[in-house]
């Protein structure tokens, strides 16, 4: 247990029927009249939904201990993704519903952070950007290089994103894991 005075960004709270909410931001407010309160922005750990919630200052809130472990993606087993704990070398199969969009950027050997609560994986955090090889894209047309257009490119993970016209099959590019946007070429 903690009080709303102890809130920090990233802290995970257990509210309303055991749901886990991560503190995105908070602000202590002391109006001229009446009691102080804490205005928060909370993100549901499982659904990703963001809500605004106000607490009276000093209100007790239940905190959840979420263990964030450094893990490495090993391989896919049926529909499950198998991750290996980089400290203990224990393997943990994680279902596609938990992996979510991270599956679009996972290659064998990819390092990431897995958040675990009471032995159950909650979500996967990837680095902000990953480097992937373009498996296939249509060749750019000569003279098209000056326009700001994009074309679809299939990455080595099977995910498709829009890339600039000058990108060719076999090139290594940097991709933003939060938005799926092309960030630039990787010079090897």
UniProtKB/TrEMBL annotation:
<feature type="domain" description="Translation elongation factor P/YeiP central">
    <location>
        <begin position="68"/>
        <end position="122"/>
    </location>
</feature>
<feature type="domain" description="Elongation factor P C-terminal">
    <location>
        <begin position="130"/>
        <end position="185"/>
    </location>
</feature>
<dbReference type="InterPro" id="IPR011768">
    <property type="entry name" value="Transl_elongation_fac_P"/>
</dbReference>
<protein>
    <recommendedName>
        <fullName>Elongation factor P</fullName>
    </recommendedName>
</protein>
<dbReference type="InterPro" id="IPR015365">
    <property type="entry name" value="Elong-fact-P_C"/>
</dbReference>
<dbReference type="Pfam" id="PF08207">
    <property type="entry name" value="EFP_N"/>
</dbReference>
<dbReference type="InterPro" id="IPR001059">
    <property type="entry name" value="Transl_elong_P/YeiP_cen"/>
</dbReference>
<keyword id="KW-0963">Cytoplasm</keyword>
<dbReference type="Pfam" id="PF09285">
    <property type="entry name" value="Elong-fact-P_C"/>
</dbReference>
<dbReference type="GO" id="GO:0003746">
    <property type="term" value="F:translation elongation factor activity"/>
</dbReference>
<dbReference type="InterPro" id="IPR013852">
    <property type="entry name" value="Transl_elong_P/YeiP_CS"/>
</dbReference>
<keyword id="KW-0648">Protein biosynthesis</keyword>
<dbReference type="InterPro" id="IPR013185">
    <property type="entry name" value="Transl_elong_KOW-like"/>
</dbReference>
<comment type="function">
    <text>Involved in peptide bond synthesis. Stimulates efficient translation and peptide-bond synthesis on native or reconstituted 70S ribosomes in vitro. Probably functions indirectly by altering the affinity of the ribosome for aminoacyl-tRNA, thus increasing their reactivity as acceptors for peptidyl transferase.</text>
</comment>
<dbReference type="InterPro" id="IPR012340">
    <property type="entry name" value="NA-bd_OB-fold"/>
</dbReference>
<dbReference type="InterPro" id="IPR008991">
    <property type="entry name" value="Translation_prot_SH3-like_sf"/>
</dbReference>
<comment type="pathway">
    <text>Protein biosynthesis; polypeptide chain elongation.</text>
</comment>
<dbReference type="Pfam" id="PF01132">
    <property type="entry name" value="EFP"/>
</dbReference>
<dbReference type="InterPro" id="IPR020599">
    <property type="entry name" value="Transl_elong_fac_P/YeiP"/>
</dbReference>
<dbReference type="InterPro" id="IPR014722">
    <property type="entry name" value="Rib_uL2_dom2"/>
</dbReference>
<keyword id="KW-0251">Elongation factor</keyword>
<comment type="similarity">
    <text>Belongs to the elongation factor P family.</text>
</comment>
């Amino acid at each position: 247990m903690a009080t709303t005075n102890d809130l920090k960004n990233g802290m995970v709270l257990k509210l309303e029927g055991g749901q886990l909410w991560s503190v995105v931001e908070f602000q202590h407010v002391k109006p001229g009249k009446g009691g102080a309160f804490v205005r928060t922005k909370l993100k549901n750990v499982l659904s990703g939904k963001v809500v605004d919630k106000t607490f009276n200052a000093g209100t007790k809130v239940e905190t959840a201990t979420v263990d964030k472990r450094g893990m490495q993606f090993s391989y896919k087993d049926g529909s499950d993704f198998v991750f290996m704990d980089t400290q203990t070398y224990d393997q943990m199969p994680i279902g596609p519903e938990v992996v979510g969009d991270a599956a679009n950027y996972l290659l064998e050997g990819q390092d990431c952070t897995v958040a675990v609560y009471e032995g159950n994986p909650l979500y996967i955090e990837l680095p902000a950007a990953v480097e992937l090889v373009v498996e296939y894209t249509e060749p750019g047309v000569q003279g098209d290089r000056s326009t700001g257009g994009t074309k679809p490119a299939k990455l080595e993970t099977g995910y498709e994103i829009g890339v600039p016209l000058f990108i060719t099959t076999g090139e290594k590019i940097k991709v933003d894991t939060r938005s799926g946007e092309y960030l630039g070429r990787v010079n090897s």
